[in-house]
C-alpha cells in the first residue's frame, strides 16, 4: 500500500513539474537610461528592490555611421557605464540591451548591410554580456536589413532572445501598423522568430477614465493583433509573447500611470501569464517632483523611491512557459536508473548567507536566497544551473551528474 501511494504521489508531482516548460527570462526588466545612471545605481536598485534585471537604453549609431554608442554620444566601453553593469552582474543581475528609442540615429538605419548590422549588434551584446536584444522602433528603419541581421545574429548566438518594443496607437487598436504589425508580418515571412512583442503603452489615444484600464485594454488589443499574425498559436501562447511597458507617473499626453495602476497591471498579468513587464524608466521612479512637469529624473507624482520597481518586482517570481521559443523544447523526464525514495525534500535554508542553492532534483532549476527566503528560479533556453560559476550554463560545460536532465 505504501509503495502504491508513493508511486501515485510521484506520478502526480512529476505530471505537474513536466508541464512547466523552460521559463523565458528576464520576465521583469524596466528601462534604465544608461547615459544618466551613476556607477553604483544598478547595485543600489538591486539592494533596495530585489530587481534582478534592467533594460539598458539606448544603443544608437553616431554621426560617423554604423558605430554603436550609448545615446549616440558615449562610447560603448564607457567605464562609468560598464563598471556599473559589471558590479550589477557580479551580484546576480542581468541586462537586456536596447537599441532605437525616441532619438536617433538608429543603428538599423545607419548600418548599410545585414552583415554589418549583425556584427554591430553582437559587439554591443558582448560588451554588456547579454543575450537579449530589444529593438525599440519609433522611427522608420530598413526592415529587411534589420530582420536579416537578426537571422545572422541568431546563427551566431542560438540562445538569443529577440524582443520588439512597438508604439501603441490606441487602446482599442493596439500597436501601429507601419512600425509594428507590418514588421511582425515581414519577420514571419523572412523566418525571424520573435520572442516578445512589447507594447509601448504610453502616449496613445483612449477615452477611458482610468489609465490603468487603458494600458490593459491596449495590451488586449495587441493580443488580438498577434492572433492575426500567428493564427496557429493558442490564446495562452500569445499572451506569453506579450510585453507591457507603461510610462510611470505623468505621460506627455496628460495621463498619469499611478501606483494603483501598477498593482492592477501586475494582477492582470498574473491572470493572463504575460511574458514580459517593463516600464519607462527606473530613473523616474522617485517622488522628487510631485506635481511637476515631465522629467527624465522623476515621475511628477507623489511616491516613494523605487516604489514602482518594488511593485513590478513582485511579478519576477512568475515563470511563464516559453511556448514560442526559438529553440527546440526539451522535456525533463525521470531518470529510470535514478533511485527515488518517498522522503520529502529538505527545507531550503537561506540563513547561511549562501545566495544560490542547487535544486534537489532538476538540473535547470535553482534557488535564489533573497531577504532570507528561497525563490525558485529556472534557467532560460534549456540551460542548466552551474554551481561552479553560480550561473546558468550549457549542459556540456556544467557537466552535472547529480540531477535529472534529458
Summarize the model shown:
With 406 residues, the protein is an alpha/beta fold. It folds into 2 domains: 287 residues, Glycosidases (TIM Barrel); 69 residues, Beta Complex (Antimicrobial Protein, Tachycitin, Chain A). Helix content is 33%, strand content 21%.
- Cα-atom Rg, whole angstroms? 22 Å
Residue windows where pLDDT falls under 50 for at least 5 positions: 1-23, 321-336, 338-343
Reported by name, the CATH topology of the largest domain is TIM Barrel
| Count of discrete alpha- or pi-helical segments spanning 4 or more residues | 12
Q: How many distinct beta strands? A: 18
The CATH architecture of the largest domain comes to Alpha-Beta Barrel
Report the principal-axis shape: globular
Q: What is the mean pLDDT?
A: 86
Amino acid at each position: 500500500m505504501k509503495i502504491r501511494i508513493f508511486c501515485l504521489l510521484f506520478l502526480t508531482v512529476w505530471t505537474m513539474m513536466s508541464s512547466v516548460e523552460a521559463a523565458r527570462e528576464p520576465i521583469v526588466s524596466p528601462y534604465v537610461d544608461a547615459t544618466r545612471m551613476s556607477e553604483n545605481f544598478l547595485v543600489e536598485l538591486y539592494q533596495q528592490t530585489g530587481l534582478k534585471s534592467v533594460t539598458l537604453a539606448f544603443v544608437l549609431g553616431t554621426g560617423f555611421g554604423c558605430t554603436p554608442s550609448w545615446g549616440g554620444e558615449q562610447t560603448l566601453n564607457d567605464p562609468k557605464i560598464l563598471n556599473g553593469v559589471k558590479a550589477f552582474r557580479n551580484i546576480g543581475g542581468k541586462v537586456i540591451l536596447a537599441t532605437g528609442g525616441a532619438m536617433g540615429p538608429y543603428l538599423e538605419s545607419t548600418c548599410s548591410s545585414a552583415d554589418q548590422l549583425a556584427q554591430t549588434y553582437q559587439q554591443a551584446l558582448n560588451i554588456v554580456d547579454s543575450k537579449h536584444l530589444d529593438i525599440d522602433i519609433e522611427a522608420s528603419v530598413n526592415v529587411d536589413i534589420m530582420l536579416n541581421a537578426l537571422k545572422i545574429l541568431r546563427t551566431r548566438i542560438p540562445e538569443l532572445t529577440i524582443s520588439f518594443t512597438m508604439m501603441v496607437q490606441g487602446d482599442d487598436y493596439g500597436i501601429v501598423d507601419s512600425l509594428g504589425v507590418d514588421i511582425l508580418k515581414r519577420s514571419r515571412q523572412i523566418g525571424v522568430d520573435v520572442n516578445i512583442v512589447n507594447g509601448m503603452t504610453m502616449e496613445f489615444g483612449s477615452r477611458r477614465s482610468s489609465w490603468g484600464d487603458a494600458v490593459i485594454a491596449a495590451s488586449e488589443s495587441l493580443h488580438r493583433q498577434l492572433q492575426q499574425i500567428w493564427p496557429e498559436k493558442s490564446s495562452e501562447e500569445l499572451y506569453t509573447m506579450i510585453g507591457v511597458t507603461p510610462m510611470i507617473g505623468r505621460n506627455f499626453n496628460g495621463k498619469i500611470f499611478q501606483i494603483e495602476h501598477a498593482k492592477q497591471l501586475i494582477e492582470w498579468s498574473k491572470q493572463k501569464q504575460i511574458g514580459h513587464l517593463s516600464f519607462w524608466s527606473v530613473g523616474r521612479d522617485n517622488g522628487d517632483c510631485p506635481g511637476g512637469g515631465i522629467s527624465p529624473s522623476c515621475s511628477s507624482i507623489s511616491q516613494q523611491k523605487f516604489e514602482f520597481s518594488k511593485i513590478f518586482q513582485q511579478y519576477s517570481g512568475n515563470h511563464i512557459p516559453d511556448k514560442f521559443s526559438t529553440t527546440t523544447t526539451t522535456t525533463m523526464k525521470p531518470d529510470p536508473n535514478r533511485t527515488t525514495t518517498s522522503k520529502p525534500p529538505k527545507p531550503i535554508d537561506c540563513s547561511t548567507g549562501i545566495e544560490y542553492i542547487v535544486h534537489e532534483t532538476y538540473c535547470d532549476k535553482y534557488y535564489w536566497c533573497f531577504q532570507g527566503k528561497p525563490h525558485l528560479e529556472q534557467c532560460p533556453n534549456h540551460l542548466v544551473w552551474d554551481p561552479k560559476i553560480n550561473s546558468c550554463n550549457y549542459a556540456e560545460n556544467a557537466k552535472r551528474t547529480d540531477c535529472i536532465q534529458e
